[in-house]
Amino acid sequence: MALPSVWSTMHVAVLVFSVVGLLSVRLVVAGQDSGSAIPAESRPCVDCHAFEFMQRALQDLKKTAYNLDTRTETLLLRAEKRGLCDCFRAIH
What we know:
This protein has 92 residues and is mainly α. 87% of the residues lie in helices and 0% in strands. The longest helix is centred in the last third of the chain and has 49 residues, at 43-91. The chain is rod-shaped, with a radius of gyration of 23 Å.
């Protein structure tokens, strides 16, 4: 029952990062079309910072997904344990 919320959270996160990625690409293309060229020497630093930011964001997403998965598994095990305990009590 908690599984759809995990998937919906992941879908929303992927959607948000996709939109942010598309908007940033649009901004870069719009900046290049306006004639304000950025010298090649300064671009790697900006690209590096953007890459590091996206890498940290991806790591945060992985941690969140792992935590949600672990939490879901824990809740499912608790539900199974309760079901078994209730079944055991009903027999005795």
